[in-house]
Amino acid sequence: MKELVPDHQGLVLVMLFVVGNTLVFALGGVAGPDIWLAFLLATVLAIPMILLMARVRSLMGGASLACGLEQLLGKWPSRALAFAYAGYAWRLACYVVSDVTNFIQAVALPTTPQVVTATLFALLMLWAAKEGVEVLARFAAIMSKVVFNVLFVTFLMLLSQVELGEFQPVMYNGVKPVWLGAFQLLEFPFLEVVVLFWVFDCFRSKKSPYRVFLPGFVAASLILLVMASTSLAVVGAERYAQFYFPVWAAVARINISTFLTRLEAIIGVTFAIGSFVKMAACLLAASRSLAYSFGFADYRFLVTPLALGVIPGSQWFISTLLDVELSVIKTYPTSATFFQAVLPVLIWIWVEWRARKLGRGKSSPTQAGGQ
Amino acid sequence: MVVVVILAYAAVAALEIWLWAERPWQKVLLYLVLIAAGAVLAALLLRDSDLKVPEPVGFVTRLIKRLWEGGGGK
Amino acid sequence: MRRRLFPMLSLLLVSLLLTGCWDYMEIESLEFVFGLGVDQVKPEVVVVLEMAKTSGGGQQTMVEPKVLSTKSQSAATAARALSNPAGLRTFWSHAYVFLISEQVAQEGIIPAMEHIVRSRHLRSTVWVFITKECTAEEVFKSKPPVANSVSEHLNSIVLMQDAISGFLPLQVWQLNQAFAAEGVAAILPTVKLVHQRGELVPIVEGTAVFKRDRMVGWLDGQESDILCLLKGLDQRSYYVVDTKVTDHGYFPITYELVGNRVELKPLVRKDGSIAVAISLTLELGVEEIGAAPLSFRDEKLVRSVEAQLATFVTREVRGFLWKIQREYNADILGFGQLFRRKKPEVWRRLGEDWDAQLRDLQVELDVQCKIVFTGTSSEPLLVRE
Lengths: 371, 74, 385
Prior knowledge:
The complex is a heterotrimer.
Chain A: H1 7-19, H2 35-59, H3 65-73, H4 75-107, H5 114-131, H6 133-158, H7 176-187, H8 194-197, H9 208-235, H10 237-240, H11 246-252, H12 264-293, H13 303-317, H14 321-329, H15 334-359
Chain B: H1 2-19, H2 25-47, H3 56-73
Helix pairs in contact in B: 1-2
Chain C: H1 2-19, E1 30-40, E2 45-55, E3 62-72, H2 75-81, H3 83-86, E4 89-91, E5 97-101, H4 102-107, H5 110-118, E6 127-131, H6 136-141, H7 150-159, H8 161-164, H9 172-180, E7 187-196, E8 199-211, E9 214-219, H10 221-231, E10 238-244, E11 250-268, E12 274-288, H11 299-327, H12 335-342, H13 344-350, H14 354-359, E13 362-373
Parallel strand pairs in C: 1-4, 1-5, 5-6, 6-7, 12-13
Antiparallel strand pairs in C: 1-2, 2-3, 7-8, 8-9, 10-11, 11-12
């Protein structure tokens, strides 16, 4: 069964995936007042990688992910690759769940054990992943209206508290903080988009991957840029990186003629929705690629065990809020570099070479290729 | 607690497999292996919450680095 | 049947999980903290709480404030320990005010306020005050004439700030930001007790000036108004100025500030010395002229009044600047921050030694005053012989 996602829904899924669980954290905090430069730099650096992903996907033509991979990479290499990314996607799901449970514990339910919130989210994403990518994309399309409208209104209300002087002086400490900030952003959340490569089964046309990934990513990075810079201008450049959740702190300042206050909760809601979409997409990617790597056409039977694994997994990789913060502010640990940058580039080179070889004589690789 | 958690995992697995329309052995095997892995992880975490996370990629890069440096030293 | 069973069982499972609420609290078991204060930090921390137990409901809701205090090793333990004599769980998110006594402020307020900033129970929008010539406990035990509790009284004063002037209200996060920012010194409004109908009543007036986290001096109400002026805050403060009206002599006339535009510019002179240019444009209304024979239809006279006002404000600002630059040497106007933002190369060179720079910093002052409003009449009261 082919699962087809319309382009506009796919685009929104990409947007929600990137905005997802990242919004509340002190993104690019090392860059200080130059945070907007760090965002722009990171976006510029990430675009080639996004294009490269879209290119690989586009070379598969109208084929589903499994067929396309086998044609281009061959059976065993693509299975090994899928296995590796299944691990990566599952780990990312654990991280996202952990971010949410820690956030909830920090701001709302201090004495509720994290396992309980993790279990609830695991059950929820289990359900979403079982429904499949079509339903998830539709959910994203509907929920994005809520999320982005809330963010827009929050942004407007934050404007009354913005102090533009916080962005001055520009690059007081040179370019190094900007680069560091950009690398923080690339690792989390920008290049985590690689996981989405494994989520989509089919696209409408050969152009679709470009239409889905590129605008979705750029829009999401702009939204993050605006929200992060606004919160920095509200809480102060010096304080921004000191908070676990600067956006939360900034929104707490909103005070519209003393009656419209305490709006933090709505940010919490958008965070929960975004995180839910992201963790469901990760779980979906993990199940799909794992099923493929063992040669099963259907992935749904793997969703439950993987989701149940996420519950202890979220406690395993990250156990406290301090670990969450470390995972947010670190600049390129080895495994992330490997999965987000090195592997995609290698695949692309290989695929480009294979496509050229296969492309001789026929216009599209429709024949079952591979070994 | 460990026993309860393992029982819970087993119960979920049994229930879901029972619900399947057909049960090819490959699928059942993979399913059970994954459930067992999840249960073992949960059980280990219950006993020791600071369980170390393995770093396969990190291990390889460290190995390469060591080999590289070793080669350079000689 | 099989298809139905799974969702039903999972729903049952979820409902099982939902019943166990760890963070469940009955409102009857809560005691709302309205205000907290720190009266001493060394050798032990003395924390004072103003709490309220609400009773009744709807129209008959009664709020009875109670003041409790305790000594402990830290602010957090002291605040926690007060749950015990209170007999109820203290609930913090409704706190309005945080008072720090003068003595603590002189020793440094970080140990007193760090817990407030870090704690997730308190909102960062709590108002912070320094108590002048009294302790936080005395303030909390005073009797405000109308409000139910001292905290509510202080909160409502703060919300009227633009109308009553004489202080700059500040919330925890702003204080925190002022401490974190480079090139700007912190300030806090002060609370003092005055006699009113035989009772002690707390009022908010004046400003405590800080250098890092230690209080180094006070500004009175009038000086605080000048500070507001220079910070560009909207504040309708009154000024009584002895104004010369043609040949009739001097009359005390009351002016109200209705509009205020301020521009601060860092200057680097040719010889490398630095200065700050302040240009102030004030719009004033006339509130009371008393017996002064002052007709605002006489344009020449109005110009002369405006010029006298500009001279008056210039003199006040000069006095204020002398006080903060020389006497307290605390950069509460953020001249350092101004240089850091607009002339980073200057800050890089002189920032290390800013205290000395501030002492001798030249300030070029340009004040423009304009009368824009004279009440309901442009003429003095008519009194026939």
